[in-house]
Amino acid sequence: MAGHLKELRVTLEDKPGSLAMLTEALGKGGVNIDAIAAQTSAQTGDIRVLVEDTQKARTALDAAGIRVQGEREMLFVDLDDKPGSLATVARKLSDKNINVDAIYVVGSGGGKKQLAIGVSDVAKGRAAVV
Questions:
Q1: Are 102 and 46 found together in one domain?
Q2: Of 84, 79, 85, which is closest to residue 109 (Cα–Cα)?
Q3: What is the DSSP letter of 120?
Q4: Which of 104, 102, 114 is nearest to 3 (CA)?
């Protein structure tokens, strides 16, 4: 599945066309968006995209005048697609004092879901969910 993706974070003005500008820049640069999340607050949009090639994405966004504000590795976890699976992982992370600040479903099939999880410490997160 998608265990090689990284998250890029950008902030854009909360207005019609901002998302189009971002996605057109990535498309023009040949960058596939594997997952995306966005929310608005105080006239700005916090947008996070998971991509395979962060350098290619940064180049495409820079060409469009869009500044990348952050890049990070994600924790990838494969779960059984059933009630309580995410709760088990969340408890394991919590028990090791690892904060979760983002989560994406990046794949599913065969009774499984793959999640990309933004955590305070990826290495500790990997150890916690084994």
A1: no
A2: 79
A3: S
A4: 114
If asked whether residues 62 and 12 sit together in one domain, one would say: yes
> Is the pTM above the cut of 0.85?
yes
Tens of pLDDT, residues 77-127? 999 999 999 999 999 999 999 999 999 999 899 999 999 999 999 999 999
CA atoms of 10 and 44, how far apart (whole Å): 10
The amino acid present at 40, given as its one-letter code, is: T
- Domain with 10 in it: what CATH number? 3.30.2130.10
- Domain of residue 114 covers 74-129
Q: Is residue 34 part of a domain?
A: yes
Half-sphere CA count of 77, side-chain side, radius 13 A: 27
Contacts of 84 (CB under 8 A, 6+ apart): none
Does residue 1 lie within any of the structural domains? Answer: no
| Nearest of 64, 46, 66 to residue 118 by alpha carbon | 46
